[in-house]
Structure formats: structure tokens, C-alpha cells
């Protein structure tokens, strides 16, 4: 009696196991009718036929290599269950027959795949080619449908939901909905990145708040994902362009912030910055040569550790943090804003805000009009392409240009439409704190201290010959600049338009 093994498969786990039951039924009938003994069965559930890298097919190959002398046939319901790649399938079948003297039989198609019989070889090859063509056509339809759903309908179709959202609805109604608890963490990630907070500190915050994505690049992927700006990234399909398209879900991050983050990520400094409560100025304070100062502890004879800011260049700065911090805090005392100035700021702010809101309203109207014109131009370009008046390269070039401008205008409209009055209400309640800058600095955490230094001095705080120096300083804090210099705390020498670095003193 002849002996056989059988192989069964279906592609998607969502399919019914009835597919396997049907294949079993047809193969059982073939076995009974031809008086063939079944030795073993191999089943791959939810596995594509594009490759032979399938768990049970690998087991089948191992079984054949070991027991081929006692097996005559490999039975399948149809050849497309075996493979949908005609070339790969032909080579595999040839190997089974030449190496193991085993023939493959498609029971419902009535094909015995015999490499040495021209008619059989042709029929089986044709059947495999038809299966591959069917697979190609199905793939084209699927990719076309995905393109339409993403680019035209603005739907997010990736299987894994982005952190910050949850999936609701079924079928075509399935969409993303903001998860406010997670969205709060996403907003914090973007805000901290724009504040130059080191990535490892952002990760610490995110995971403490329940961020559950794993991997060293998890935060980077959040920062780069356009879904948070209400966009969906679409791959090109045939002659249709790819790129970023408006999505139907609610954004978590405004487009302006997202665009700023993308720009910053492209030029991000790859040097890792480590923050330390003992060294709040490390990386933000610079040596007179322009290099950011590092910092480290040094052990004294008594065994106590003392901290120093150091330049990587030998014979440059090596400053005791005790001295550097005391100088800086003394400068903070002189930066404190007088009460009369605080009153002027409070009195003048509301009028400025009202004027800004009126100005923004006019700007928004103008930008909306510009946006409508750009959209009309884009539509005309699409019409010309559809009517073959322009070629694909021309269409892609204009599409890219107009799309970038539309995205920039949309982001600008969002920013100008925000109400600055809400921000001032928060500021107004804190204005009196400006009267004691030393206290503000001391009570801030290390990240806030770094933000303060970068903001006040625009990233241009240097140390040279025992004193702080800067070419840039916020006007509100510079009212006692001469006294700061007189007392040996800080020299504020305004940056001239044609000078790009801090002026050197005493050299």
C-alpha cells in the first residue's frame, strides 16, 4: 500500500477553521478512493503562501528528510495551499521528487506533479502561475484600498494603536479616539524635547507616567509619528503620490510643535547630556572657547567630594561649583525685577494681548484666503494630471510644493487662533515672583534651572577669567548689568550684529 503525508494551510487567523475541515475532507476522500495510507498531517494556520518559512512546513521538510523512504506522496487540496510563488514552488517540488523520490498531488485539481512528465509539469506550472497572478491581483486591490482609506478618507489603519489613543468602532467606522491620560504624557514628551531636556530624562518621566512602549527608540518614534499632529503617512501607490495627508482623528499635538520637533530631530546634537542636581549648569554654561562645560566630582584629602565645571580643552576653565553657583545666585539677586517694573508689565500686558488678538485675527483671515488659493491650485494640478496635460514628474513636484505650503499654513492658522489671554492669566498670578530671582532659581528643579539659563541668556552664557559673560540677555533682567560687572558676577556686553560669538575681554 502506498503511503502519504498531507499539508493544509489557510492565510488569515480570522478565517474559519472550516477551510481546514474542507481540505481534510477532500484529501480523506482521495486517500480512501486510491487506497493510500495517511502517515501524518501538517497544518499551518494563519500563514501566507508567499514563502516556505512556515512552522509546520518546516516540520514537514524535517519529517521528509528523515522518513522519505517510507513515504510516496505529499497531498495538498490545491497547489496554491502549497505555495503562491510559482518559481519557488517549482524548485521545491523538483527537490522533493529528485532528492526524495516523492510526488506532490493536488487532489481537487487532479494534478500529479511529475517533473519528468511534460504534460504534468506544464499543468502544475500553469496552475502555480495562475495562483501567483491571483495573489498579485489581490495584493494590488488591497494596496489600492489601503491608499484610498488613508489618503482620501484619512483613516489610521495600522494594527497597533499609537500610545495616546484608543481604537473605537468597527469596520469602516473604526477610528482613533484620544485617551486623555496617555495624551498628557505624549504632550509632556514633546514639550520636554523642545525644552532641550535630555532623552533619558524624558524616558524616565514617560515610564513613570505609564508609557508602555519598549525599545531604545520608543520615545524617538513618538516624536517622529505624524499621527499625533492629526496626519497619516501614506506610501505611494502606482502613479498616486505618497506623503502626509490630513487624518480624521483628533490631534494631540498642534502642527506647529510637531513641525518644530521634526526640524530639531534632524539637527539634534548626538552628544549625550546627563543632568545632575549638583551640576545644574553642566552643558548649558560654556567655556570662553565655546565648548559646553562638563562637570564631575573630585575627592579631597578628607574624603569629601567637591564638584567642578571643566572644559575639555586643557588649561581652560576648571571652576569650583561653590564659587560658580554663588556668583550666579548673586547675579540673580541683581536680576530681580523692581516692583514698579512688575506693575508696568501687569498694566501693559492686557492692552498688548488685546492688540495681538486683533492682529492675529486679521492674519488668520489672510492665511485662510491664501490656504484656499493653494488648495485650488493643487486641485488644478490634479485635474491637469488626470487629463494627461502634465507628466507624473511635474505633478509630483507641484504636489510636494503645494502640500508643504498647505501644511505650514494650517499650522500657522492653528497657532494664531490660540488665545494668548489664557497664558497671561497664568503669568499674571506669578508676576510678583520676578521680584526674587534667586528664590525662583533655588526652588526650581534641575530641568527648570537649565531652561531658565537658556531662556535668559539665549544659550549664550560663558565663563572666562573668573567671571560670567554673555552677549545676549533678556532686557527685563539687565537693568543692573553695570552693578553685576562692578561686583565681579557677570559681564553683559551686548552682541553686535556682525559678531557671532562672545567678544573676548582682556585679550
Q: Can you walk me through this structure?
A:
The chain is elongated. The chain has helices spanning 18-33, 55-67, 79-82, 86-100, 118-152, 180-194, 199-208, 218-224, 255-266, 321-335, 339-386, 392-417, 420-430, 437-443, 446-457, 481-486, and strands at residues 3-10, 37-45, 73-76, 103-106, 111-113, 165-168, 175-178, 231-234, 243-246, 285-287, 294-299, 305-310, 318-320, 461-464, 467-470, 490-492. Helix content is 50%, strand content 14%. Helix 6 packs across helix 9 (255-266). The chain has 16 helices and 16 strands. A five-stranded mixed sheet has the order 2-1-3-4-5, with helices on both faces. Strands 10-14-15-16 form a four-stranded mixed sheet. The longest helix is centred in the last third of the chain and has 48 residues, at 339-386. It folds into four domains: 3-140, Resolvase, N-terminal catalytic domain (Rossmann fold, 3-Layer(aba) Sandwich); 165-266, Putative Large Serine Recombinase, Chain B, Domain 2 (Hect, E3 ligase catalytic domain fold); 285-336 and 436-492, no CATH class; 339-429. Strand 1, helix 1 and strand 2 (37-45) form a beta-alpha-beta unit.
